[in-house]
Give the backbone structure.
Amino acid sequence: MREAVKRFGTLGVAFIFGSVAVWALLLILIPHLMLIDYAFHANPGAVKKGLAEAGFTVYSFLPLVDTQDDLALRTFIRTLLTSGVITVLALVICYPLAYYLAKVATNKWLSILMLCLLIPYWVNEVLRAYAWRTLMAKHGLVNQAFVGLGFQPFEFFNYELPIIDSNVALFVGLIYSYVLFMIFPMFNAMESLDKNQVEAARDLGASWVRVHRRIVIPHAKPGIASGCIVTFMLTAGSYIVPVLLGGKSSFWFTQAIESQFSVLNWNGGSAYSLVLELVCLVFVMFMMRAFRVTLRDITR
């Protein structure tokens, strides 16, 4: 604190803390208080019809536990399950890439590969989703390549994966959309690993699997946890990708939230949003406990 005062002066420090306080108050605290207030009150239409009581009530949460019409519950479970699977797939795909970038690639190739990873993200997410929609269309470039190789066209948008009932196009789009948020935290963690530890283990006869299991992964746990947390939360909270790439049964929970707000049911939309946020918070705590890392380790 004293160093900050010496560097920025008393007024500078006060301005910084004041700006952060105003930002947290206006964009975090007040909106969340309004969200909670709306969530625990029924919409005026339901109150007028006598379906719910005025004042504090859990009426807006009832569709999530309704056994007669379980669309909201099934959508919620499918969204969480699919987000979990996508997070695992992204981890499997990105781990070797992050290790290669951090410990194998030369400075020249590191710059080139980093640029290749970043360039697609200079384009808006909506345009990227439309690009994948065009590529994976029935007569798109990908299927034209399949036909050229002697295969039948693949129904990316109509082929539903078993159990999770989500199509292939949605998986491809979501993994692609958030792959950087998995790679960069792991790259950042692996970059600080002393390469001599890996070389010493190899000299002592350890296999690459053992090296990663005993040296690399324990060192990269904060990065792995951070990547999984961010990827899961962004996937579960995604809206435009499921809208553009989702199939017949790939209705996402964020679409259910939007549908509530679109019919001016702010109470129902707030309740759904609050439940999704709480589940994401539980996931953060679970990942921290599973990887035995603290919040400071994750944000390092």
Q: What stands out?
A: DSSP finds 14 helices and no strands in the chain. The CA atoms of residues 129 and 244 lie 7 Å apart. Residues 2-39 form the longest helix (38 residues). Residues 70-298 form a domain with the MetI-like fold fold (CATH 1.10.3720.10).
